[in-house]
Amino acid sequence: MWQAVPRPTSVTVRTGPTAFSGRDHELTTMVEVLGHRPAAALVEGEPGMGRSRVLAELARRREFAGGRVLRGTCQPLREPFPYGPVLEALRAAGDQPLGPLSPVAGVLRPLLPELADQLPPSPEPLDDPGAQRHRVFRAVRELLVACGPTIMLVDDLQWADEGTGDLMRFLAADLPPELAVVAAYRSGPEPWPGPLGAPVRAAPTVHTARVALGPLDVAAVRAMAADVLELPRISDEFAVKLHECTGGIPFVVEETVRALRSAPLPAGEGLSDRLLENLEVPAPLRESVTERLAALPEQAAQLTRAAAVLAVPAEPATLGDVAGLGAESLRAALLAALGGGLLAELGENRYGFRHPLARKAVYDAVSGPERTLLHTEAMRVLDALPSPPSLLLAQHAHAAGRTQKWLCYAEAAADEAIAHGETSRAIDLLQAALPAADDVGRLATKLSEVALRGFRPDVIETLEGVLEDRPLPPAVRGTIRLSLGMLLVRTIGRLERGREEVARAVAELVDRPEVAARGITLLAQPIDGLTPLSWHERWTRRAREVHSGLTDPELRLALTVDRIASASHLGDGTAWAEFEALPDTGESVAERVQLARLWCNLSDAQSWAGHLDRATRLAEEGSRRATDAGALYAIGLVQGTQARLAWFRGEWDGLVETAEDVRSRYPELGPIVMETSLVLGGLAAVRGEFAVAQQHLARASVHSPGDGPIPVVLCAASVLIGVLLAGDDVAGACSVADVAVDAARRKGGWVWAASLVPAAADAYTRAGRWSDADAFVEEFARGVAGRDSPLAVASLRAGRAVLTAARGKHLAAAAVFDSAAAAYAALPMPYLATSMAERAACLRLLAGQRPAVDALASAAAAFEQLGATRDAGRCHHLLRSHGAWAPSQRGRRGYGRELSPREREVARMLAEGRTNREIADGLFLSPRTVEQHVAKVLRKLGARARTDVARRLSADGAAAVS
User: What is the pTM of this model?
Assistant: First the structure.
């Protein structure tokens, strides 16, 4: 938090201004006011709020393109030039012809040599300085009148000299009729009268506006970051953290994201809190802060350095104690620090820095010896408080080099974090303290237990190191190994290694049955890998035996949670009744963590069974409970479940971005990566992006079923079979089906094979493998008999409908498909319901039932509403082939230079690099039609080539017409 390190050699390159964001309302209001001449606007804001940028954007507005735009800036000079900013602005007045001028305007010739050829001759100077100055003021006004429609922008008015202030007041009292004046100045802690020392009063006929710029909101910070980093989307979590880190101050946001753009990302890590915390203070921001620090009186600078070391907003007395200032000196120093813009009041009688980077810049400027002294003083002051803050004390002790005190405070802070559900903070503290600790076993045990609430791959390496390097008692070793195994089980590709470690731990914990119970119940969980249910059932029986002898309420609850979730996964209807009978709340944080796990895990189980409404409610409540309890691992799992639920339910708007965001935040957490990859693969498949779909489905462990959650693997296999069949790769589809069917048989949990049944039946019947198709469907029917799984019921109907249709019994199969569609719709799973309805309609059309075209048209409309463009295209193609689809008789809407819906689809596929043939296949159009659409897209977007289309599409998918 405080570590100051030498700054590495760096090169900073600026590529121009960022996109203007977050000030639309202010800019629109000012443009409206300035359109009614004469007009005046005052823009105020603290340093970095973007006053100059607002003026620059005003200068570029098309509303002012027909007149002059004059700009001037006041400079912080010891001896400023008289009327400097106004004269600087007027130098550009001669770019266009001026109106008539009287002889008095000639007084400006010596001041504006650039306009000498357009100004009258200089009159004789007056003897009276006051009269001469008045003549200059009149001449300036007359010149502005001669300019016609003009907007004059004056920046940094806080540095205006006395003459400029008088001139601005003179103009404000009687503004030229076609003039709009905008003045910007830096506000500070001093109250109004404002930058010129006295109010500037405009005449009553002048339209006025006053804009006080505050920090940007999170949305504007996100937009600026996305622009500078050239990313399509910034996650909500990172946007909030960036806003917190920068205080929403535009200058700080811009410099921070520019620094992020140049910062190398750690391997496997995207934009993260850790990246922001470790970011070097951007050079322009550091220079700004150190310049203001150097301008402070010594005692104010001393107080500011003490605040930087203390690191949190504090009362003046606390800051004074750390800085070693008495009451009188403290008051003067605090006022000076506030006036210098470094410190600010951040709460009632609490002062600190507006954003962490300003604090870090000051902290880095503190010398090593002074830093150590201030940290020591901070320890003394904080330790004397009625409730000493352990976390702050630990950080100060570490920075001061007081190792023993640091270990003591760090463990106390970790205990507090655990009690309050702050899992990540507790892990950080224990990881940091472990290498220097005397009692490694005790701290490692504590670390291993809290690590199970979250998922931090670095903890795995720490625990492996402890087990390898330190001699530990068997019970301690077994406890640590147990947690290690449980973490490994969650990691991609390490399932079997994790189970081996858990089994070893159970053997080492023979004298600690309550701790061993956690390992036993984990080995009873059947959802992952290909280990047969019979193996897990042996551990389940052992878990029941252990449960009866447990006295720890949290551990009893943990075993109950796992038993209910496992039973629900297998379609045991009694699990729901047992869940409803459990208490709704827990007394301790640990019990609340277990209840959060229950809601999240049960949501997952119920979703695979097809109780989607129930699963959605469980997921929402489970997410809330997990967040409150600090159960980070459960939070990640339920986010994956919620993404899959949205996919099942056809709630696809923004789902790609959501799933990618969840996957990027847990790149090594196997269950989450696989579940979100399944969702992304399914969404890509319905868009006809088959290569992309296969890449995502590979990450869902479709080719290595032993490494992932079996429901995800089998569902991914069903999607992949559909993709391969759509490309007429029947052999490839059968190969995938063979692997998946074998996995389902080896595992034995037939409820999880629901989505696989119709897909495998399709592949086998198209290959003529009738016996394989019949055997698998009937084996599934026997396996789910009596199970509580509405999804299994719907899938069984779909599988039998496929078998019936493949034997040429069109009308009989259509009736079964209708039944399957109704079952899927009741879940609700609208995409599968619509797919079943489409197949029923197609079979009836094959049987000569012409009225089925209405059902097929309804399916096409439903697919379009979902966003399943390829399926909708297939339906329209079939309707055309039956002569049953034509444009509306009311005529087509004219889109002009906008893209039509079909052209947007083509543009999106072009942006993805698809060829004309791939677009034609994806939308079921002829190559000639696609060529015409491509030509229109390129023309409307102003794109010179296909590769230019992606850049010209706006972020929300609409076309940004050039």
Answer: 0.67
